[in-house]
Every structure is written in C-alpha cells, then in structure tokens.
Amino acid sequence: MPPAAHLRPAQTRPRARRDSALDAQKRSFLRMASHELRTPLNSILGFSEILTAELYGPLGAPQYKEYAEIIRGSGQKLLNLVNQVLEIARLEANAMDFDLRPEPLEPALDDVLASLEADLSGLKVEITGRGELPAVVADSRGLRTVLFHLLQNAAAFSPEGGTVFVRAQRLGRGVEIVIRDEGQGVDPAALPRLMGPFEQGENALTRRGEGAGLGLTIADLTCKAMGGRLTLASKPGKGLTAGVRLPIG
What we know:
By secondary structure, the protein is an alpha+beta fold. The protein has helices at 9-53, 62-92, 105-115, 140-156, 191-194, 215-225, and strands spanning 101-104, 124-127, 135-138, 163-171, 174-180, 229-234, 240-247.
C-alpha cells in the first residue's frame, strides 16, 4: 500500500495546501528573477548598441567602438544564458503553460531553419519527405523550441560542409522526428550525461559554435512536458542522432 493511501481527506488537505504554496513561491521567484536579471542586461545591450552605432557622435579612439561591440556581444551571450536557465527552472517547476493541439511539422521546421540560418552556414540540411511531413500534437512554441535546440546542436557539432539529416515518420499512434549530424559522435555510455545541463560531450573543442550545453536539457524537458520523449543515439565517429516522439496530430 502506498505510504499516503491510508490518509484521510482531511489529512491530505494540509499537504495539498503546502504543495500549492510552494508552486506559488516558485512562480513568484521565477517572475522576480526574470525581471531582476533581464532588466540590467537589456540596459547593457541597449546602451552598448548606441555606443557601437555612435548615435551621438564619434567615440574618439577606434578602440572604444571595438570595446562597445565586445560589451554588446558578451551581454547578448549572458542574456541567452539567463533565458535558458530560467526556461529550465520553469520547466522543472511545471510553470510553463502549454497549449497542445495538432501542429503542422513543416511550417515549424521552416521557421526554425530560417532562425538558424547563420548557424547552418556552410552546412547542408537534407529533409526526407519534404512537403509530406506529418502533423503532431504539440504546443506551437514548444515544438519550435525542441526543433531549434536539436538542429542548433547538430549544426554545432557538424564538420564544415557536412549534412544535417531530418526525417519524420508515423509510428503507431505517434510521430518520430529524427535529426542526425555527421559529427564525431560520442561514446554511448556518455549519452545520459548529455541530457543534463552544462554538458557538451567529450568533443566540445570541435564545436563550430558556442554555448553552455543547455539545449538538450531544454529539448528533453519540453518534450516531456508535451507528453513526448527525446532519445539520443551515437557512436564515436558516427555523429549524434536525436529522436523525438510526439503524439500524432
């Protein structure tokens, strides 16, 4: 018998109230952290952009403009990291509101590919079944978040001139979306660790881009929140394959 099975309704109500209070505290903290962290970063970005553009006249020595550009770039990286950490916190606290409905996969994929144009520069993207991709039951933003992080991860570890492969197929009552790169891959024993935050694999020095290693964690938690799951498969020298299973639309 489960430990709480013998408890009467009157005994479970205080626990429910405590859980509700904790959820409220988590949401309040996330709102506060979001505001207190983003507000100064937005100011840093805004003023550094003004300095870089020299809107109020020349800065003088050329180094000043160079330093302003460095400040802006560093601020943007920090803001991206803050946004990702807060997103993980919201997902873990079940503070994300997802609207699950049939979502066409093709336009979601097109949106993500357009936003990753710079990351995918020098790479080919091969999509199997273009024009006939199935729909899935998912949150519109959540689906794009998952695709964004998996494609960005594939791009980061792909060799120059390599190909990122994308396909989707119906499997029973669901759809499997597979994204595979031609990178160096990792030892299968390291795959569970890659799902954790700030993990980049053993070949992090071969990455084409930068990042804190939070993308796979966000993709995994978002998949679970939408009733799906994310799996990884890899072998050294064989690239990394990410498989997303979502209900069929």
